[in-house]
Amino acid sequence: MVQFIDKSVSAVSMDQAEIDLFVGQYLKERGYDVALLALTDSSSVTDAAVAALPAGRLREILDENYERKQAATAADPAVKELQLPELERAGDGHFARDLWCDLEQVHATNALTTRIHPDGKAVLSGAADKQIKLTAIPDDPDDASVAVSGSEVVQTCSGPVLCIDINPMNTDLVLAGDMAGGAVVFSLSSRKVVFSPERHRKYVVRVAWSSCGKFFATASYDNEARLYAARPEAGEEADAEAPYRLVHTVQGTGQVTSVAFTPSTVAPEDAELAVTVRDDHRVHLVSLSTLEPRTINLNANGDSWVSFTAMDVSFSPHGAFVLVSTDKERLILLSRQSGVQLRNFYGASNDEYSNPRHCWHPSGQYIYATSQLHEVLVWEVHSAKVVGKMSDHTAPIKDIYYDKGRKMLASTGFDKTVKLWREIL
Predict the structure, then answer these.
(1) Which residues of the chain have pLDDT under 50?
(2) How many CB atoms lie within 10 A of CB 120?
(3) How many whole angstroms separate alpha carbon 410 and alpha carbon 102?
(4) Which of 133, 244, 291, 349 lies at a C-alpha separation of 20 to 30 Å from 389?
(5) For residue range 394-414, what is the model confidence (pLDDT) as tens digits?
(6) Distance CA 80, CA 84 (A)
């Protein structure tokens, strides 16, 4: 039975049955009998449940939500400033959405993570077979099978490889995390391990380098996110045996789901690390210059209710916004400075069992995100509308990454492929 929710419903997430019920009432009140019949035939909505609701319930919720957002905008002058031009500029239509190359069977087991190397010549990928492979991007997509046959194993980790990242300032350094709780920094050219931090007690689900290349972070299901910094420069107190040192730990109340650093467009003194935690209504941020923590509330009304989990986090290319993927078919865009919600993006099919991933187009005008329906969706930030859908994967998609140099999106997943998408010329 659907339990009636009072006027505070707009402050939290509703489940699908409640949404269907309110839609059913709206259809009945508007006289859309054919649509209502189709809804009752394909859902749990009944005529009796619709009749039991106070009149105009859906309109009331929508009006309250609109008024709350308008009030938040009026109360925070920074929001209007941020809307120019980043939010008010429509997309130019140039974004990767055309499947250009299909690198099939790069791994013999499920592929879990991928990155395009900054030189634009190769793709790194990690899989359940514990291997990280380097595969050349062919000049001609018809030569994909040749490229796959020439893939090289560049590192074997202690467990299935869940995440990788490439140092943006020293592209020879690769950071990886695995299901055995291990993390490793290794040289792509020599294949040698440069640094192995203390092992986490559970999966390392995300790793990330800072834009300056001097920090990296690990996120684990042991409820910890750890921040490491490069050792002091020569002439200071340096330890050649430990090129990186642990400088801060975020202790979550649940599993840490994601970490991300501000982009290079943010001044060094303002650079931050973002951390998301399961069953936590906040994004945790840590200053890289002072290590001082702060939080952003993911609830628009500022309460501590937990109705979804933040599964992935990133900063916009210009650094002004924080984007969060949730396990409730919703992505949330917030102001990094004020924490005000600026946009909500709907359309991806995800639930509490999902592990969604997202990334930005370098222009900041589009975002990409995965769906449980084996799709990658594209939204225009300005309108919050879905403007593209890539449906060529045949199994769950586990990672996506956009390369600015090649203007190319890479995606990988349980179909053991790495797919490369490019702009339509």
Answers:
(1) 1-12, 81, 84, 234-238
(2) 13
(3) 10
(4) 133
(5) 999 999 999 999 999 999 999
(6) 7
